[in-house]
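Section 4.2 – Deliverable D4.2 (structural model, holo form)

The reporting period included a commitment to supply a predicted holo structure for the target in complex with 2'-monophosphoadenosine-5'-diphosphate. Inputs used:
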Amino acid sequence: DVYDLRRIGLDTKIFGLIGKPVGHSKGPVLYNRAFKSDGFNGVYVPFLVDDIAKFLKTYSSPDFAGFSCTIPYKEEALKCCDDVDPIAKSIGAVNLIVRRPSDGKLIGYNTDFVGAISAIEDGLRGSRNIKGETGSPLAGKLFVVIGAGGAGKALAYGAKEKGARVVIANRTYEKARELADLVGGDALSLSELENFHPEGEMILANTTSIGMHPKIDETPLPKHALSTYSLVFDAVYTPKITRLLREAQEVGAVTVGGLEMFIGQAYEQYERFTGLPAPKELFREIMSDY
Ligand code: ATR
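Output (C-alpha cells):
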C-alpha cells in the first residue's frame, strides 16, 4: 500500500530519494502515506543513482520538485545545488534538495542536525512539561558531542545555533580541536570526558558508531560518568536502546534514540517538500512498526 496509482496524474509533483543503495529506505511509505492523508498531490520514489550530477541535469523539469540525498551523495549533492543554506554549507553536506517553484533553482539543506536537535529539544521539554516556553531549551546548556565526523559536526553546529555551549570529545583530540575551533567551542579527548564535571546542566550526544550492532556491549562513556547529564542522545539506532541509553536511563537521565533523529529530520523534509506541517502522529505510528 506504498503507492496509490489512482492519485498520480500529469500535475503530480515527483519527489524521491537519491542514493546507492536506496532499497532499505522508509521514505516512500512515510511520505506517500502522509501525502495521501494531507490530500497533497505528490509521489515519493527511490532513485538508485550512479551519477547525481547527471541525474539532476536530466530530471530538471519542474515536476521533479524535491529529493532526499543519502549515502554516498551528501557531499556531492552540495556541489550540484544552485544555492545552499548557510548551515548546510558549514556542515559541508546536503541531504535535502528542493526545487524553488519561482525560478526552478535547486536549493540544498541539511536536515540531519535539525532532526537530532528537535528530538533533543522535545526530550528536554517533555521531561519538564514547560508550558508557553519560548526559545530553545538548549540555550545556555552545556552540550557535549562525542565524535567529530560528519554527524558530530552537524550536531555541534545545531546545538551552537540554539545557543548551547558546545564541547567536542573525540578519540583523536586533534579532530575535536579542529571542530571546536570551527563552531566556537571547547575540545577534549574522549578519555578525559569521564572526569569532566563542570557546573550547570549538561546534555550528551554520541555521534560515533560505538555501541552499534553487533558490538552492543560497547559504550562511549561508562555508567558512573553519566549521572551528570540530564539528557543523553545516541545517534545509533541499531539496537533501538544502546548500552549508553540503557545505562543513562538507569541513572535517571532522559534519553533520545537515533530513531527519533530520523523521524525529526523527516518532519523537516516533509515541511520543505509540501509547505504543510508534518503529520507527526502518522509518522510516529508508521515508524513504531520499524
Ligand atoms: P560520521 O560521518 O557518521 O560521523 P565519520 O566521519 O567516520 O562518521 O566519524 C566517525 C567518528 O566516530 C569519529 O569522530 C571517530 O573518531 P576518530 O576521529 O578518532 O576516528 C569516532 N569513532 C568511531 N569509532 C570509534 C571508536 N571505536 N572509539 C572512539 N571513537 C570512534
